[in-house]
Amino acid sequence: METKEQSSIRLSVVVTVYSETFSLNESIERLIKLDRGYISEIILVISPKSSAECIDICQQLDQKHDFLRLHMQQQNPGVGWAIREGMEMATGNYVALLSADLETEPEAVDRMVRKIEETGCDGVIGNRWLKGGGFQNYDPTKLILNWGFQYIFRLLYLTRLGDLTYGFKVLRKDMVSRINWEGVLHEIYIETTVKPLKLGFKMEQVPTVWIGRREGESKNTFLRNFRYVRLALDVLIAAKQRLLITE
What number is the average pLDDT over the span 31-38? Predict the structure, then answer.
């Protein structure tokens, strides 16, 4: 990959893949387009249940880009397992977490990296509620519930971060390696925000737009939202030492 600007950030981009095709290709193209020399690798964590067409596209991307790595998810099913495996594999000093379905906006990765360069923070989350962010093709009832959840847990965690449940973010690798991750399904999205907050790491946010997927179906059912609530409450009352990996 051609270096466009010097950066102290070496970013490992972990992309979870579940049968996406054109969305996967577009996600990678848009990531690379805005890269200023900080992307050191892109790791595609592929669900074993992905379609043959999707796996073929992953292999084509692997042949096309030297910095791209393929990893077939070992613990399955569960996007939480996929993210945990990708974070463990990452070799950069920061790790970006996004999906291949284009519900996560690839351009926001560059905004997150700039925020890290400006502030030296430990992590940056994408915030759909900030000015410049937003939701497209999002269920109105879920939108109201999302807002209420964010408001309550912002107060409980005494944080100005406004989108705690969104899994789209960039985290410092040495921080990631110290934390005991437990989420196996979509609750990993809030876990990767609230555990760093609870442990006192410096977290920032940037606006981003969520756009409903154009292919495939979300595996995050309404009932699974209760897993977010339970995990957030468990972390809130947990002793800090329990959240860390012990030797």
Answer: 96
